[in-house]
Amino acid sequence: MKSRMITLPEAINEIISSCEVCNVGMVDQENLPYTLPFNFGYENKTVYLHSAPVGRKIEILKQKPDVCITFSTAHELYKQSEKVACSYGMRYKSVLVQGKVEFVEDFDEKVRILNIIMKQYTKRDNFEYSKPSVINVAVMKVVAEKIEAKAFGY
Q1: Quick one: which of 18, 53, 60, 70 could link to 138 by a disulfide (CB 3.0–4.6 Å)?
Q2: For 129-138, how does the pLDDT look when each residue is reduced to its tens digit (9 = 90+)?
Q3: Could you write out the DSSP letters of every residue in the chain?
Q4: Sequence-distant (≥ 6) Cβ neighbours of residue 100 within 8 angstroms
Q5: How far is the C-alpha of 42 from the C-alpha of 117, rounded, in Å?
Q6: Residue 119: which CATH number?
Q7: Domain of 29, in residue numbers
Q8: Overall domain count for the chain
Q9: Per residue in 39-85, pLDDT tens?
């Protein structure tokens, strides 16, 4: 099976939109890797994230905003021979996004981004938010500096 690089923006968008979670890799204050799953939204080569406004990830991202975000979907086990372990493999489609986290503080922009995140999971465009819920959530955006995508086994 061969890997196939994907370059069409529509195909990349399709992979990302089919994912339920993305994994965000960062490097902590001791230069150790730290990776967490996030719910997300995606639009115009920008990944949107939200979280509690305090905690280890927030401390890391404020000091070191460089991140690598991975998306992976369409996993399918295949085999050539049921008895031969090395003949097994996994088909998948994946996207890798590299960029810098930017924290969003503007109330209206946070609402716009939260709607993008909600649309990822509900396909609806607009929601209502209480003022305290918007004020008390960390909203982040990562404009893609680099995007790589591939399909393996498809």
Answers
A1: 53
A2: 999 999 999 9
A3: --EEEE--HHHHHHHHHT-S-EEEEEE-TTS-EEEEEE-EEEETTEEEEEE-SSSHHHHHHHH--EEEEEEEEEEEEEES-TT-GGGEEEEEEEEEEEEEEEEE--HHHHHHHHHHHHHHHH--------HHHHHTSEEEEEEEEEEEEEEE--
A4: 65, 66, 67, 142, 143, 145
A5: 7
A6: 2.30.110.10
A7: 3-152
A8: 1
A9: 999 999 999 999 999 999 999 999 999 999 999 999 999 888 999 99
Enter the pTM of the model.
Answer: 0.93
| 96-to-16, 23, 26, 143 alpha-carbon distances in Å | 10, 10, 13, 13
Tokens for 92?
A: 């998948």
pLDDT at 16 over 90: yes
Give the pair of three-digit tokens for residue 58: 């927030």
Tell me the C-alpha distance between 74 and 87, whole Å. Answer: 19
Determine the Cα–Cα distance for residues 83 and 88; give it in Å rounded to an integer. Answer: 9
